[in-house]
Structure formats: C-alpha cells, structure tokens
Amino acid sequence: MDPLEQERRDREFMAHALELAATTTALASPNPQVGCFIVRDDTILGEGAHLYDNYDHAEIVALKQAASRGLSVKGATAYVTLEPCSHHGRTGPCADALVAAGMKRVVVATLDPNPLVSGRGVEKLRAAGIDVVIGFGEQQAREINEAFAHFIRTRTPFVTLKAALSADGKLAPEDSLRTAKEPYWLTGAEAREDVQRLRHASDAALTGIGTVLADDPQLTDRSGISRRRPLLRVVLDSYLRTPLSSKLVRSAANDLLIFAGSSAPENRIRDLRSAGVEVEIVAEEDGRLSLPFILSRLGERQILSLLLEGGSELNGAFLRQRLVERVIFFHSQVRLGDQAIPFAEGIASPAEVEQALRRVTRITIGEDLRVSGYLRDPWLSQSPSES
C-alpha cells in the first residue's frame, strides 16, 4: 500500500478508536480509558472500549466481538489508544491475546504512562513478529488519560482548579453585598452546564467550609450522564462547622467525606456520622489541614481526578503548594470592584496565573470566556521516590 494512503487510514481508524475511548468517561476509572478497532483492509472486524465493571480490556472486547461475528482476525490490524498491557492484573496481558490472535499490525496511540511497564507490551508484540506503529493520535490519547497518567506515577489525584471570575478577576462580591447561603452566579447557564460536565469527568469534587457556609452548595454531578460510581463530594472543615441542615449533609448517600482536624468536637463528629457523613480526622501542618496528606488519602481511595471548587483561601493554598495540574477559568463580563473577594489569597492575579499555563485553550461559552491550561504535564508527573 502507498505509504501516504497507509498513514491516512491509520489516522482515520485511530480517530475512531479515540472516539470509543472518550465514551467511557466516568465508566472506566480507576482504570484508563481505552478504545480498540480491529480492521482488515476497510472492514471493521471488531471494536471495543474498556468499562471497569465489565473487566475486559478494549482489545479483548474487540476480539470477542469479531469472534461472535464468526470473523477471523488473523493478519488484521489493531488500533489501540493505549499500549496493550503486558502484565497480569484483573485480566491477562492484552499483548499476549493480540499475539495469539495472529495480528499482523498494531497501531498504538501512546505508550503506557506507568514507568514500570511502559514499552513492555510493544516489546512483546515486536518479539512475536508483529509490526508496531506508535504515535498516531498521541496527544488526544494522552489528554483522555491525563488523570490516570498522573495517578499511576504519584498515587495522588490529578487536580483541576476551576473558578468563575469577574471581569476584574474576583471570585464574588464582598460578603455584605451577598445573600447568605446562596450562590452568587457570575457566569451564564451555558458555563454552569459546562461545570456539570467537568464534575461528571471527575472522581471527586472538593471545597472548603467557607464555601459551604457562604453558598450552601450541592456539589453534585447533575450532568445526567451515566457514571459507575458516585461523585465523591469532599469538604475541608477543620472544626466541623458544616451544618446538619446543609444541602450537602441532607443529600449525603455514601458520597460525602469531610476531612477535619484533631480539635474537631466529638459531638459534631457523632452527629455528622449519624447523618450519613463520613468524617476523617487528618494530619495538620501549622494548624491547618495537610493538603498533601489529604490528596494521598484520596489516592488510597483510587480517586484519580479531583475538581477543586474552593474559595480564595483554598485556591491560594493549593497553588502555593504546587498541587494543581490544570486550571480552568470562566471569565464573565461582570465587574465586582476592588473590595470583592480575590481569586486566591497570597497568589498573583488570575492573569498572571494564566501566563504560567501551557497548552492554553480559549473558547466562548454563551457570554463567558473559558480559559484552560496546564501548570504541569501530567504525563511527566514524578512519583514520590523520584522527586
């Protein structure tokens, strides 16, 4: 086949595999999102995506589909968005399954981000005489699995800081101008719908007690899209001031976790636990809850992605301690003035934060501007032993 035509087809079929992988948002975690197409000439023999609850990896799903259709995959090409695994986990190695199936070519978007196994699946395939091509759709494949890539190396969640900002870079009006226990909407309905999609794509959302007392948020995933496990709602509340009458507590259904300090009153711990809230007492540093420790505890729960929806103090603390990987700002056209609540305590303005971002995208959503970018590359995250 003409090399240019082969390249065109490889890009086209990998694009289909990436679309498959993207359909598994909130359905594959804590595993990666992977899609696979098995093709001979222009005929699709089998396709599949990994769903955590169904065990089978994408390659196995595609192989089984081809078999169910009575189709032989010998001599075919597999397009896989992530390097086929080479080790035993909940299932056997997918690289071995592709070899046994008689695959002729395997096109891989990106290698496994786990440094302990990266490249080993490709080595197995090539050792069996299979032609392996790497790199088509790599950037998109990495974006789909950025949380997994960060987690597999650090064992802590990939943190996205989300904030709605006024035109002059503020979070909200000064307290005297706000309605108690009611959110102040800076952005329009379209931007708020986008936030629901961000929550849907996250394993957990985190806020602080200041936001709970000021806004009485629900912090739920209201996207209406299926997910395999509930969005874990996390509150940092040193002294357990979260009201029992709050929307968070009243809606608790094994999905609300409050981290508190050692000085939290025993009666408050008891009352919140009786209301169905999980309360965990955690380490403190200089009288404040230890954010790195909290992230490690969430990692132990296999929380791969965390959406930070905090106030000024929490935003500042996460940024100062370099715990944020991605930033998403929703800029409204409203101006709030110098006395309004700043974006982040002790931190430069949002404009200066944006200047530090890499791979920045800017899109208009309704009447608001959405700016997103990365402070660090999640695929280069260091494990604790490497730092």
Could you characterize what this model shows?
By secondary structure, the protein is an alpha/beta fold. About 30% of the residues lie in helices and about 20% in strands. It has 13 helices and 18 strands. The strands form four sheets. The chain has a nine-stranded mixed sheet with strand order 11-10-9-8-14-6-15-18-17. Strands 2-1-3-4-5 form a five-stranded mixed sheet, with helices on both faces. It has a two-stranded antiparallel sheet with strand order 7-16. Strand 1 (about 35-40) and strand 2 form a beta hairpin. Helix 3 packs parallel to helix 4 (about 120-125). The protein is elongated. The chain starts with a helix and ends in a 13-residue tail after the last strand.
Secondary structure blueprint with pairings:
Blueprint: H1 3-22, E1 35-40, E2 43-49, H2 58-68, E3 77-80, H3 94-100, E4 105-108, H4 120-127, E5 131-134, H5 138-144, H6 146-154, E6 158-165, E7 170-172, H7 189-200, E8 204-208, H8 209-215, E9 232-236, H9 247-250, E10 256-260, H10 266-274, E11 278-281, E12 284-285, E13 288-289, H11 291-300, E14 305-308, H12 312-320, E15 326-331, E16 341-342, H13 350-355, E17 358-365, E18 368-374
Parallel strand pairs: 3-4, 4-5, 6-14, 6-15, 8-9, 8-14, 9-10, 10-11
Antiparallel strand pairs: 1-2, 1-3, 7-16, 12-13, 15-18, 17-18
Helix pairs in contact: 3-4
How is the largest sheet built, in terms of strand order?
11-10-9-8-14-6-15-18-17
How much of the sequence lies in strands comes to 15-25%
- Identify the overall geometry: elongated
What's the number of extended β-strand segments? 18
Largest pleated sheet: 9 strands, mixed
Average pLDDT rating: 94
Radius of gyration from CA coordinates = 23 Å
State the distance separating the first and last CA atoms: 47 Å
Structural class: alpha/beta
Task: Report low-confidence residues grouped into runs of 5 or more.
Answer: none
Number of helices: 13
Residue share in helices? 25-40%
